[in-house]
Design goal:
Elements lengths: L1 E5 L3 H12 L3 E5 L15 E2 L12 H7 L8 E3 L5 H13 L2 H14 L3 H10 L6 E2 L3 E5 L6 H10 L8 E5 H7 L9 E5 L3 E3 L1 H15 L2 E3 L6 E5 L2 E5 L4 E4 L1 E4 L5 H5 L9 E10 L1 E3 L5 E4 L4 E5 L4 E11 L6 H11 L6 E3 L9 E7 L6 E4 L6 E5 L5 H18 L16
Parallel strand pairs: 1-2, 1-14, 2-10, 4-19, 6-17, 14-23
Antiparallel strand pairs: 3-9, 5-9, 6-8, 7-8, 11-12, 12-13, 15-19, 15-21, 16-20, 17-18, 18-19, 22-23
Helix pairs in contact: 1-8, 1-11
Length: 415
């Protein structure tokens, strides 16, 4: 069969890899260049430990509390927009304890083979930067790990395969020399990893091209139209007819689906990041700064600082104020390493995470449109969930069967 994957982010490129491994004739169509979307801006965390719904008890009140705080890590801003009001109402419903627990179980099941799939990519020749030292959560106050403790108290009885080790500040400093004297308590998860997301996308691009996948960059899809039992994809210079279409456009998914007569409750949530070099010994672990909710990812040539979750967002403008805040907020947590003072603030970037009300992605056949599949709405878990999503989509396309692990991510009752 011929399959078009529309969207060349981490979910789209992973899907192309999974489909091609099953023998499908695959074309990826990316409106920009591979690695320039939100997939290339994020912290690159592979964190089964943090794969829980943002929609959780108490989060709506917290988000509204910081609605007008320009420095808030999570902000939910009032807006007189019908789609946004409907989304927020569904988000509130999904934050109930019973819905939250169902979401945790669904994501736990989806993540069963996540780490194995990343290892399979490497074994298959996908060359990318990956680190397996785990995640080190740092808190300045004794109660700063309360959320983290509650999270693991919830995960472990469900069969979560990871573990957590709680550390004093001194123990954390012995574990990672970059940790500063202001850190009182810490937690280390051994199961988690992080990648350089640009290198992952470049590695996937190179590998799928070697496998025979056609990758079209800087190519906008103008329309997707059913033609008999097939699909016609119209682009500026030509059209492409295929048997199946997989839409992996993230926050831009609805721009394409509207022409087919339906919309998904996916909105953009803006996050920011900046890559910096610094003086001293770079962190050995991915660091999660608990109070400001920032992530630090050490790579071979830089450290990425990433954070914020602004709802709703429709543009990728980067206020310099936001990037300065990221840099200022990391200092109390670090000692052995600090960002260079002359870092170029203008190098900061923003991306739109595709957020759904229940914090679960849509992964499966679009209702009423045979041969059309959607994999979108992964929120902050795009890198973590990409390989498992890709495997699920590839199985559905090739067998027309929905695996049991994918049932919670279907459309019924969610749109």
């Amino acid at each position: 069969m011929t399959v078009a994957v529309i969207g060349g982010g981490v979910v789209g490129m992973s899907t192309a890899w999974s489909l091609r491994r099953r023998g499908e004739d695959v074309t990826v169509i990316e409106r920009g260049s591979i690695g320039r979307s939100a997939s290339g801006v994020n912290a690159g965390w592979i964190t089964p430990s943090l794969s829980t719904p943002l929609a959780s008890p108490g989060v709506v009140g917290l988000g509204l509390k910081h609605a007008f705080d320009p420095n808030g890590a999570l902000s939910i801003r009032p807006r007189l927009d019908t789609d946004w009001i409907r989304w927020l109402w569904k988000f509130a419903r999904a934050s109930r304890p019973s819905a939250y627990e169902s979401g945790v179980r669904a994501l736990l099941q989806l993540n069963t083979h996540t780490l194995d799939l990343f290892d399979e990519m490497r074994d298959d020749g996908v060359d990318f930067e990956m680190h397996s030292a785990g995640l080190l959560a740092l808190a300045q106050y004794a109660d700063g790990l309360e959320w983290f403790t509650q999270l693991f108290d919830h995960l472990l009885p469900m069969g979560f395969p990871g573990s957590v080790e709680y550390l004093s500040g001194d123990e954390a400093r012995r574990r990672d020399t970059a940790v500063g004297p202001g850190v009182q308590v810490a937690a280390h998860t051994s199961i988690d990893r992080h990648v350089n997301p640009e290198s992952l996308l470049q590695g996937l691009h190179k590998r799928v091209s070697e496998m025979g996948v056609t990758v079209l960059q800087d190519t906008a899809v103008q329309a997707v139209t059913p033609v008999g039992a097939r699909w016609s994809i119209r682009m500026p210079d030509h059209s492409l007819d295929v048997d199946d279409v997989v839409v992996t456009l993230g926050a831009a998914t609805n721009a394409l689906l509207t022409s087919l007569g339906f919309r998904l409750p996916i909105i953009g949530a803006k996050g920011y990041s900046i890559d910096v070099r610094g003086a001293g010994s770079s962190p050995r672990h991915a660091l999660y700064l608990m109070e400001p909710k920032l992530g630090l990812s050490p790579y071979h040539d830089a450290v990425r600082i990433a954070g914020a979750f602004e709802l709703p967002a429709r543009d990728e403008r980067v206020p310099e104020r936001r990037i300065r805040l990221l840099l200022n907020q990391v200092h109390p947590y670090l000692a052995g390493w600090s960002p260079d003072a002359d870092v170029d603030i203008r190098s900061g970037r923003a991306g739109l995470r595709p957020a759904t009300p229940d914090s679960l992605p849509f992964i499966g056949p679009a209702p009423g449109h045979r041969g059309l599949y959607i994999a979108a709405g992964h929120g902050m878990l795009g890198v973590t969930l990409a390989p498992a999503t890709a495997e699920g989509i590839a199985e559905m396309v090739t067998t027309r069967h929905i695996p049991e692990s994918m049932l919670p991510f279907q459309f019924a009752g969610r749109i």
